[in-house]
Amino acid sequence: MDETQINLHCSRKDCQTANPMTREFCGQCQAPLIKRYLWVVGDSLDSKLINQLLANRYFVVSKNLVVETKPATPPDFPETIPYWLKPYLKLSPYRLHIPKVYGSIALDQGIIWLLEYENFSSTVQAKLAQGEFLPPLSAVWKKATGTRQINWLLQISQLWQPLQSQKVAQTLITPELLRVNGSIIQLQELHSNQDSVLLKDLGKLWSSWIEDSEPNIQSFLQEVCQNLIEGNLESSEGLTRFLDEGLTEIARSRSRSYQVATVTDSGPIRSHNEDAYYQQEESQTSGLNQQALAIVCDGVGGHQGGEIASKLAIDHLRQNLKTIQENASNPRLFTHKIEKAVSEVNDVICEQNDQEKRRAQERMGTTLVMALAHNHEMYITHVGDSRVYWITVNGCYQVTLDDDLASRQTRLGHLFYREALQQPSAGALVQALGMSSSKLLHPNTQRLVIEEDCVFLLCSDGLSDNGLVEQYWEQEILPILEAQKDVNIVAQRLVSLANTLNGHDNVTVSLMKCSISTAEEKNLTVTFKEQTEIQPEPETVLVPEQLDKPKTSKRGGLGLLILILVLLISGVSFSYWYFPQVRQGLNQFRENLKQKPMRDPSELPSP
């Protein structure tokens, strides 16, 4: 049996027509066909199974690669989650680099587990079809620019702490597991720590790449590795700051330009539009230190509250961000200022809810996605289930993780993501701007290094629902990069697709095209000594001020402790019975301890 004898079913749930594997579009609905390549984690398949169909759906390409032929059908999941797969679930916020568990196949020799990655381009898929997985970092290192080499190391340093917390940092010092897709590090699979894994082990691995590094960064990389091995860099945060300094210096040699286009529509069945957006007044900016900004909000709440909330968020956020952009600082503080601005906007909406005595589903709120370009980086911030996708010539990556019940159940380690999607109320929001105090809000900000031409798509769920972006990105968005297609035309086309193929909601699409100039990179001169001598900006906003405490006797301290405990217990009891949100949170915590798969739907209204 070969590929020509295999049928690939349409991924649209309302179609699922069987098509020859060699076709690009569905013969029934004309939608692009999705080829989802999955990695067999752990033991490889028997070579006798190559070119065979497993479980009547998985076509075996190689001993470690299969193709899903029925993408609209949920995969199988055993009742119990193996302990060694838990890290994949708990590290789901790092989906850009870490694969998700897709499902399992029950074979005679046991259960086979499959991993899924983000959406690969046809060029990458052509290599996968030949049984070639993404290339190892070590195999392509020599051909990369100095900027990309430091960028790869920066991504690894940012993954160190979360992987160490799940005891899988061994992955980052195992060369064959470090794969790349263009500028992005993608881990083949996760390996548990066999012994203690230290930063000096990272330095030893990186030092083997110094000789093949670009000449303009060799001395810098030598110093990085030396300080890692000698223990002078004691934390991954310090390593990240050092790499940031180097990347900032070398990135100055190339300029960046941006084009932004945004289109919104109420949709075919909604009477009014609760979405709101903002983009810079000028659709195109350029220069070494130019900034670009795009924001999309999807309002939620009754009595047109969602429309009010989304506009409030846009109006206040754009004002707050002006100060941030004018006073740029180090990445950590810059990120904090962005999230602080989001929290302030949240409290503005929350205060209006309280003044109007809105309760439960009457409270207005809004989701938020924002892309803020700053020098060589893109800062992505989100709250809710509106999304940001990052499109390059190699693939389409969903950068944000939805703030919904399905994602939370996965992050807590209770359910595999595709299993959680099948649960009742899987798409119910767990947070949105304005629904409660900012003390309970957790905005998420990621920063991405922009060192190749790319496009960012910000959208409300009117577009992203039902896998529409995953299905059409290569046909509709990739031509912006490959054929210089106009971003305004593409944005209008995406809204039209959303109205035709989804059509159940308002839809807003914002496209930000990033273009990088070609210029010779300068030699990197920053040193470890210089970096450690750099005084960071005061971050008193991050750390509560420590006040001198008067000396107290042991007896007085014990009495104070007892008093605090009594007040704490009383406060919790009072809050439990008189504040539904607290009671709901405590009940959810108790359910989590029992590891039940889902809880009752959130009180948040659907967007």
Describe this structure in words.
The protein is α+β, with helices and mostly antiparallel strands. Among the domains are: 3-85 and 94-121, no CATH class; 137-252, no CATH class; 554-594. Helix content is 35%, strand content 20%. The protein is built from 18 helices and 23 strands. The strands form five sheets. Strands 9-20-19-22-23-12-14 form a seven-stranded antiparallel beta sheet. A six-stranded antiparallel beta sheet has the order 4-5-6-3-8-7. Strands 13, 15, 16, 17, 18 and 21 form a six-stranded antiparallel beta sheet that branches. Strand 4 and strand 5 form a beta hairpin. Helix 17 (554-578) crosses helix 18 (580-594). The radius of gyration is 25 Å and the shape is globular. The two termini are 47 Å apart.
